[in-house]
Structure formats: structure tokens, C-alpha cells
Specification:
Helix 3 links the parallel strand 5 and strand 6. By secondary structure, the chain is of the alpha/beta class. 27% of the residues lie in helices and 22% in strands.
Length: 263
């Protein structure tokens, strides 16, 4: 297969989870499927190895990275936030994997798509902070889902999204308004330097950001576009644009100079 025919390789970030008395590096199926059918790329799972991750080796093999959602939250010491309340789910190994990986991917110009926890990781990695209990912030709505509801109800459209005119998200989707799902308890507080707000909820919650001046596609969204992506043209357009960026990057990666750096 020629370089122009092969699928781009997209890393998908995993969580480090204790399930049935065994540790797993786990990714929900919907992220793998959305990369496969939405971005038309070959997904590979990135284990949450923390400090043992060889970021340079990893990124030299990838044409894009998806940073997934998760029930866990970024530990607040990464953004100088107050200690989490008892019972808050964290994933220190994932934090130690994704935060440096995001910074390195941006530096290299590797396309990245950050979803839910992923947008929060992007914001923290670049120096921003998070609201730990968004529903308790004056003027903000409760963006959490009902975990006891059927899955289709949990991922049903919940609120309006206002999209910044002329921004990356508007260029990709061709619209300045949409209706999105909402399944998160935390959210962006202080937007990191180097990020541009691309979309907000009616209550002012930041729902989408891009990396300002990014070399390649670098978008974060707070909702879950991966859910039944083929059935939602708005969300599908995001994965298609990400896939196109990964294919473009793959072509550049195969045309490297003698030093091994992308031309």
C-alpha cells in the first residue's frame, strides 16, 4: 500500500481503571468507532503509562490524537485548584500521560481532537483552570447527565451552542448555532493562554476551544460528538475535518528530511 492509500494512524487516550480486581488501560468503544467511521482512520489505544510514556517515540508514529472523555477528573493540583471533595474520581496515571502529550503534540503540530475530559486536559496543559462543581457556580446551569437514564436519553441534545463567527468551529460546521448534549460536572474556568474560545453554552460555559495559531487541527469540545457520530451531521463534520487533517499530516510525515523531522 502506498503512503497516499494507507489510513492515518490516530492515538486514542486510555484511562487506567480498576475493574474486577484487575487494572485495565481502557477506552470506551464509541471513541474507537468514531475514529474508524467518522475520521476514517486507524485507531490505536494509548495506554496511561504516565512517566513511562515515551512521548517522542509515540508521536513519531501517529498522525493524530484523540483525547477522550472519562468519569474521572483532572487532579486539581495541576492547575493550583483546591483539593477535591472526598469521593471525586481521579486518574493520576492518565494525567501524567495526557498533559505532557498534549503539549508535545501541539509543539510538533500533530492534529488533536480533545473531547469532554480532553478539553479540560487541553486547558490545564496550557495553563488554564477548571470549575470543579460547575452546577454550584452562580449563574451556571447543571450540565450533568442522569446516570440512571437510558443511554440515548443521557446523550440526547440538551442545550444550545453559540459558535463564534469566523472561528475554526464555524468554518468546519458552516453554522453559528447548534444543539448539543451535556454530560459533564466540571468545566473550564480560566481559559488558558494560547486558546481561543470557539463556542459557549447559554449560561456562558465554554463548550469549545481551539489552539490559537496551531500548526494543524487542534480543537477541544466539552460535549460528546462521538456518540452515534454517523447519525449526527454536525458532529460528524468535526470528525471528518479531524480525519482530513490527519491525512494531510500523514502525507507530510512521509516526506521528511534526512534529520527525520517533518518537512
Amino acid at each position: 500500500m502506498s503512503p497516499s492509500e494507507r489510513l492515518p494512524i490516530v492515538g486514542v487516550s486510555a484511562c487506567y481503571k480498576w475493574v474486577d480486581n484487575v487494572w485495565y488501560h481502557a477506552v470506551q468503544e464509541k471513541y474507537v468507532t468514531s475514529v474508524t467511521v467518522g475520521a476514517k482512520a486507524q485507531p490505536v489505544i494509548i495506554p496511561a503509562l504516565g512517566a513511562a510514556t515515551d512521548v517522542d517515540t509515540l508521536l513519531s508514529t501517529l498522525d493524530g490524537v484523540v483525547f477522550t472523555g472519562s468519569p474521572s477528573n483532572v487532579e486539581p493540583h495541576h492547575y493550583d485548584g483546591p483539593k477535591s471533595r472526598d469521593g471525586t474520581l481521579h486518574d493520576a496515571e492518565r494525567d501524567a500521560t495526557t498533559l505532557p502529550l498534549i503539549r508535545a503534540a501541539i509543539e510538533r503540530g500533530v492534529p488533536l481532537f480533545c473531547i469532554c475530559r480532553g478539553i479540560q486536559e487541553l486547558n490545564v496543559a496550557l495553563g488554564g483552570s477548571l470549575h470543579q462543581y460547575l452546577e454550584e457556580v452562580p449563574g451556571r446551569a447543571d450540565h450533568r447527565n442522569n446516570p440512571d437514564a437510558p443511554m440515548d436519553d443521557q446523550y440526547a441534545p440538551r442545550h444550545r451552542l453559540s459558535i463564534a463567527a469566523g472561528g475554526l468551529l464555524a468554518k468546519i460546521t458552516g453554522v453559528t448555532e447548534a444543539t448539543i448534549n451535556s454530560l459533564h460536572g466540571q468545566g473550564i474556568d480560566r481559559v488558558a493562554p494560547g486558546l481561543t474560545v470557539e463556542g459557549v453554552a447559554p449560561d456562558g460555559t465554554v463548550e469549545a476551544v481551539s489552539v490559537t495559531g496551531a500548526k494543524e487541527f487542534a480543537l477541544g469540545v466539552q460535549w460528546h460528538p462521538e456518540w452515534k457520530v454517523i447519525d449526527n451531521p454536525f458532529n460528524l463534520s468535526l470528525f471528518q475535518a479531524f480525519g482530513d487533517a490527519c491525512r494531510s499530516y500523514a502525507r507530510k510525515r512521509t516526506s521528511h528530511d534526512a534529520s527525520g523531522r517533518v518537512a
